[in-house]
Design a protein that fits this description.
single chain; alpha+beta; Helicase, Ruva Protein, domain 3; Tetrahydropterin Synthase, Chain A; 3-stranded antiparallel sheet; UBA-like_sf
Length: 198
């Protein structure tokens, strides 16, 4: 498997403004072909999404979902730039699917940045203790703990989770939102959500 250098990833990011992790994925997928990597990112809608990420989202919807049996409920605050897009079927479908995602996958935070630093620190202490008990080599600690942290984010952060409808298990919620941004031409972001359960 092709392993892009940090400089290659940075160059692609500077050209496209797409997130670093997607730049790396694009280069791995296209085996380092810079032009193909840009095309790949364009097809994913990530370049458009990144270029709109700073635009103000003053419109949107408050969506709600109650699961069969009324044991699980979700309130979602999904934002966009204009009322026109807020009433768009593509936006409404995204909102509904995000409610279903939250109900079924139970994320605790919107993004990695929302995870309190003390939670991350506590997890690292626990994992380090486990590795010492397993007598793992200390020079492997950082790599193993980073892998565990990535897994923790994928499980507990909405944007890092795999979209529940994606049969291939590759499409993250962040990229799903990026596709909607590309289709609507507006910035779209999850402002907040609450999941209730009995």
């Amino acid at each position: 498997m092709y392993k892009p250098t940090t400089d290659e990833i940075k160059k692609l990011r500077e050209t496209t403004f797409a997130p670093m992790i997607q730049c790396k994925e694009a280069l791995v997928t296209t085996e380092g072909d810079f032009k193909k990597a840009i095309t790949w990112l364009n097809e994913k809608g990530l370049i458009k999404a990144a270029s709109k990420s700073e635009r103000i989202t003053g419109a949107g919807v408050i969506d709600a979902y109650i699961h069969n049996g009324a044991q699980v409920g979700v309130l979602l605050d999904l934002r966009c730039e204009t009322d026109f897009v807020a009433k768009n079927e593509e936006f409404k479908k995204l909102s509904h699917d995000l409610c279903l995602q939250i109900a079924s996958m139970n994320p605790l935070w919107v993004s990695q940045e929302d995870v309190p630093s003390e939670v991350v620190s506590e997890k690292k202490v626990i994992w380090e203790k486990e590795l010492r008990e397993q007598e793992k080599s200390e020079n492997m600690f950082e790599k193993i703990i980073q892998g565990k942290l990535d897994g923790f984010y994928k499980e507990n952060c909405l944007l890092s989770q795999i979209y529940f409808r994606d049969e291939e298990g590759k499409l993250t919620i962040k990229n799903l939102i990026g596709q909607t941004i590309a289709k609507t031409g507006e910035n779209v972001k999850v402002a907040n959500f609450t999941r209730f359960s009995i």
